[in-house]
Fold:
Amino acid sequence: MKHPRPDRTLTQVSGFPDPRPAREAEVAVVALGSNLGDRGETLQRAAERLRRLPLVDEVRMSDPIETVAVHLSGPDPDAPRYLNAVALVTTRLAPEVLLGMLHAVEEEEGRVRRERWGDRTLDLDLIAYGSFASAEPHLHVPHPRAAERLFVLEPWLSLDPEAVLPGSGRVAELVASLRTDEDGTAGDQGAAR
Structure:
């Protein structure tokens, strides 16, 4: 039996439409955070797991930064501190599929969802996906609070000085605005939730 050449699509070989139509690669912005266990090792394992996802071409991860935890009641200096980073993930996965895989990676690392904004072994948030936007309850992209979080914006900016958060503007300008915020709370936020 003759096998198709790898560079030929199913449509070219069989004459039928490919049931897996090609999706253009997009850059997804994923925020990583951990404040339980070996935080640095957890972030490294998560980045490696992202690299092994199907239809992921490249993962670039920022250096981690340490931040105070934020709970529903506000910053909690007594809680374990977070390590936060951002990964730029070049992928052909649909946004909802990528989000589902991010949740699966969290579960692999022992994430338990007991309370909103609670301590966690690993938090992976889909911050942006190219210019895609969705306000669906199960898929809110861009992340609704990303423009307020230096622990997301600064690592992202370190990877892409020209970054733009869809609907909010240039990341460099958002960072500058938060840095000059007079109330002093802008830089004291924990992991992206």
Summary: The chain has a mean pLDDT of 84. The first strand starts at residue 26 and ends at 34. The radius of gyration is 19 Å. Helices lie at 10-14, 39-51, 95-108, 150-159, 171-179.
